[in-house]
């Protein structure tokens, strides 16, 4: 009995040490106070913020700027609720956060970017940094100014050394992944011309498809986001000059116009899109999809068939990225959402593989031009390395 307990305690200790090593030290918040004078503020009028873990050694002049995710708000009521959280106010943000995955400072777990300047931009505007409405309703004090936050934060980073960047990499997850698509070329324009600049979108390739009831749920939602935040003028004009502005919120309508090299990391069965675009709660009143949406292994044959259809729609939308060699693709068949921020999916002993390659290896090889990477996985359940994380259903409150 004593021996068994000792083994159990040793196992707990080993896992604790692994977690400590991969989590790394917490990184303190930086509040961009000067941004307020420019009107570049969060939903509640507080200044924007970011976390910065400084580069060292050979990475001292390299900069990785990662944009936090967190959905969107599409009307005053929901934006007002959001303004009382970390997703709408720097007053409610954690003073320090752990950097893992692509932000890790541990070489073994992030070999290509561990010693870079690594920045996490906090997301507090609710529209992927596209909104800009001058008027502020005194009844709500809501500020729709995301498009001002973006350059204000970048300018602050430039003043702190990014103006001397030799390499710069813009990345983002979810709504931040969409932001990295929409702002990829503007990031290139703000960085010194001599630097190598590329972008990464993780789980940011949201597609325009009907939900299982046949309704255009996500298109209508994006239409409301664009109208509420005044986003139209800040979306790519090459797109808005041809189609409705809300359609330019979908990467499939703008990705082909991106001139800066960009890599798309996405699950073909993106769990957030399945839960909120394909099968939002409103179209499943009897909870028929409840267990399936939470755990893909509990889906019926018919539900899997519906999700296979979503995958085909996703791959068709992905064709609009174009076939340029400067575009990268890591499209696995996992049921997941945001894979670069988490150590276990970015680079760990049992990380997901595509063409026998981890996400970290594929992204690093692509960034440094060691080899191109444009791979699309076979259909579920063909990939045994997928984690297919079981989740507690927490629908985004805005959808």
TrEMBL record:
Its main location: secreted. It is an enzyme of class 3 (hydrolase). The keyword Lipoprotein does not apply. GO terms for biological process: cell wall organization. One of its GO terms (cellular component) is plant-type cell wall. Its EC number is 3.1.1.-. Residues 1-24 form the signal peptide. It is found in: Secreted, Cell wall. Pfam families: PAE. Keywords: Cell wall, Cell wall biogenesis/degradation, Hydrolase, Secreted, Signal. The keyword Membrane does not apply. One of its GO terms (molecular function) is pectin acetylesterase activity. Belongs to the pectinacetylesterase family. Hydrolyzes acetyl esters in homogalacturonan regions of pectin. In type I primary cell wall, galacturonic acid residues of pectin can be acetylated at the O-2 and O-3 positions. Decreasing the degree of acetylation of pectin gels in vitro alters their physical properties. This is Pectin acetylesterase.
């Amino acid at each position: 009995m004593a021996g068994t307990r000792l083994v159990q305690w040793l196992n707990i200790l080993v896992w604790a040490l692994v977690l400590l090593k991969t989590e790394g030290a917490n990184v303190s918040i930086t509040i961009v106070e000067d941004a307020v004078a420019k009107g570049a503020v969060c939903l509640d009028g507080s200044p924007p913020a970011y976390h910065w873990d400084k580069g060292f050694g050979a990475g001292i002049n390299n900069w990785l700027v990662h944009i936090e995710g967190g959905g969107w708000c599409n009307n005053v009521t929901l934006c007002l609720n959001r303004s009382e959280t970390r997703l709408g106010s720097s007053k409610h943000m954690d003073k320090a956060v752990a950097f893992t995955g692509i932000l890790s400072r541990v070489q073994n777990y992030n070999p290509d970017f561990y010693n870079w300047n690594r920045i996490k931009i906090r997301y507090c505007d609710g529209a992927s940094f596209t909104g800009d409405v001058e008027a502020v309703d005194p009844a709500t004090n809501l500020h729709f100014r995301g498009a001002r936050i973006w350059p204000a934060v970048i300018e602050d980073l430039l003043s702190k050394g990014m103006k001397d960047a030799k390499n710069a990499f813009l990345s983002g997850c979810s709504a931040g992944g969409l932001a990295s698509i929409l702002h990829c070329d503007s990031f290139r324009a703000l960085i010194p011309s001599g630097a190598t600049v590329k972008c990464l979108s993780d789980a940011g390739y949201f597609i325009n498809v009907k939900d299982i009831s046949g309704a255009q749920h996500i298109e209508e939602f994006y239409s409301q986001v664009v109208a509420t935040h005044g986003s139209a003028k800040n979306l790519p004009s090459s797109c808005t000059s041809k189609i409705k502005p809300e359609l330019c919120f979908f990467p499939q309508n703008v990705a082909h116009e991106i001139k800066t090299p960009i890599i798309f990391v996405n699950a073909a069965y993106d769990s957030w899109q399945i839960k909120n675009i394909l099968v939002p709660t409103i179209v499943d009143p009897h909870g028929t999809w409840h267990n399936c949406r939470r755990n893909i292994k509990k889906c019926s044959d018919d539900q899997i068939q519906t999700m296979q259809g979503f995958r085909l729609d996703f791959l068709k939308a992905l064709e609009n990225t174009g076939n340029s060699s400067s575009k990268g693709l890591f499209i696995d068949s996992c049921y997941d959402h945001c894979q670069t921020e988490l150590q276990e999916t970015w680079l760990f002993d049992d990380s997901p593989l595509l063409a026998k390659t981890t996400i970290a290896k594929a992204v690093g090889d692509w960034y440094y031009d060691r080899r191109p990477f444009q791979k699309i996985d076979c259909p579920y359940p063909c990939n045994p390395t997928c984690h297919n994380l079981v989740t507690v259903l927490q629908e985004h409150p805005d959808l």
